Amino acid sequence: MGSFNTIDIGATGAQLGSTWLDVLAHNMANLNTVRSGDEDPFRARLVVAQERLTGNRGSGVDVVQITEIQGDPPTVYQPDHPLANEEGYVMLPVVDLAAQMSDLILATRAYQANLSVIKSGREAYESALKIGRQ
Description:
Blueprint lengths: L4 H25 L5 E2 L8 E10 L2 E12 L6 E3 L11 E3 L5 H37 L1
Antiparallel strand pairs: 1-5, 2-3, 4-5
Helix pairs in contact: 1-2
């Protein structure tokens, strides 16, 4: 990190927020994706983040992994559905819309907060430059 630590740290947080928002959008876009009972269902993805350390100091955050939600997928009996298996069941996606919407609020706020950090850092550096000019 250089002399613009505040901006650099805010940028890593904004990147995390952006990635999180993209993953949530993908999950919600596949909310109605059905598969035959013989296929693996669509599973919502989760972003795993980790603190970035420089020495013993925090210096941002990194996306370390994007995983899929585990658990048994819901199935519905729809024998007329083109993707129904031989027993007539269709596999629904493993996506909890309420959880996705809650995460969407959190991701949006995190993204906005990090953009505010970047803006405040820039304004502080600009003020310091103005003092130096006088």
